[in-house]
## 1
Amino acid sequence: MRIALYEPEIAGNVGAVLRLGACLGVAVDLIEPLGFAWDDRRVRRTAMDYIDHVAVARHADFAAFRAATGSARTILFTTKAAQSAYDFAFAPGDVLLFGKESAGVPADVADRCDMALKLPIMAEVRSMNLATAAALALGEALRQTASLPG
């Protein structure tokens, strides 16, 4: 299982997701362009020394990402989806994709994903923080596939 971030804009969110990946033993894919310099000290400050314990792959664009992940299912998490992540059967090889903080993913990227899921939230709010959403989604996917560490 992997987490993929499409054109992430906030270094702190990427750092938090890298730390999540390190803690749960999951690789992280970053689909460029990034909204910050990769050497940005905020990434390392948030990820701390955990960044040394996670496999990170950077991809020039979505096509390069899809080519690198091959036949793995790409599961998009979006507030626009109809199906809940809690009503979906995850598989160990799934790639959990999250869009950029300000706009999600464009329609052509969404159309190239194998499934779109949502994390249920209160109607009065717009969306969760990227790293929080990734943690909830990954936790459920690892739980379902009996892949949680420890």
Note: Strands lie at 2-6, 27-31, 56-59, 74-77, 83-84, 95-98, 115-118.
## 2
Amino acid sequence: MSRKTNVMTLQSGHKAVAAGAVHVPAPGEGKRGEQGYLGYLLRQAHAAVRLTMERTLADLGVTSPQFAVLTMLNAYPGLSGADVARLTFLTPQTVGVIIRNLERDGAIAMTPHPVHGRIQQWTLTPRGATLLKACRQRVLELEKRLARNLDSKAETTIRRWLAGIAADLQED
């Protein structure tokens, strides 16, 4: 349950919290900062990245989950919807909607599996590849922003740490 804070702007332009109101810390403060739980901090960072990505891709008509699906189909052509769901951390139902919309827009195409005819395999179309390229240019700017205060050694360490968490907790 969230609480609204009663914030007043003083004549000096400074903001003050009204008496009796609870101060909700901004990202980076208190438990939302270095004192916070790692799991919470990862979730907070993910939410900030996702919101920024949504805003970055909005005028292209692409959502963050659609971008993830396009990215995985580019990296691994011929995936099934179930494979895409696992790789993008989305539900099969959500992926089904995304796939239908991307197919309708001509960004991806289905081909039947050569052995298991009931399995549908998805690949990018030329239109999908062009759309992904436009998205990727924008997302690369966000990636640069994420790593702007890191040297290459620190970035490599963080990438290893994040990938290691996923690999380690995969078995749970």
Note: Strands lie at 7-9, 15-17, 108-112, 120-124.
## 3
Amino acid sequence: MTASSSSLGPEESPDALRTFLSGDARRIAPLLLGSVLTHNSHEGTVAIRITELEAYMGPGDSLHPDPGSHTFRGPTPRNAPMFGPAGHLYVYFTYGMHYCANIVCGPAGTASAVLLRAGEVVEGRHLAQVRRPTSKSPRDLASGPARLATALALTTADSGRDALVEPFGLRLPAVPAPHYGAGPRVGVSGDGGSADYPWRFWLPGDPTVSRYKAAKVRRA
């Protein structure tokens, strides 16, 4: 299955896409619903239509402090890509077993990004299935941030790379989603996971959207 030309806007230059992504991640995130991210690797091409995202903002001393963000306590070698140019990837390793991928937003020097939480594989389904052999159906291939990163073969080696040029590519939807859901982010502990930060956005009714899970409360 491939994304129809009618569902995507015209191919925009990397400069135009970077300008678009240089705005507020909370505003950009819902506009990215329905966009298609592609990775052309030596194994082949996989493209995913994004159906769920989360916006993350900056450090505690910034204009938009976000206690749920990796940058909340300031810059580190790990989160450095979030402070870089818009349109680059920020990929991190979590729970000792999973990769999760973000697209950096905002002007360079101002940390923010959009976590790619879920999507539909619209090209390269067989290759995605090889990478995700435990998936029981096509809708499970990229339903969840770790599954999405695996289907696209993204690892921390890709963190800091430009998602807008080869071997990657980003196509925006022809028309922004007329309706979308918004609510607290998944699995974020503390204040950042509360209703005060309704920065998770999804396409209602899409079968690839992951199930909401609040963060587990850890006892001392």
Note: The chain has a mean pLDDT of 93.
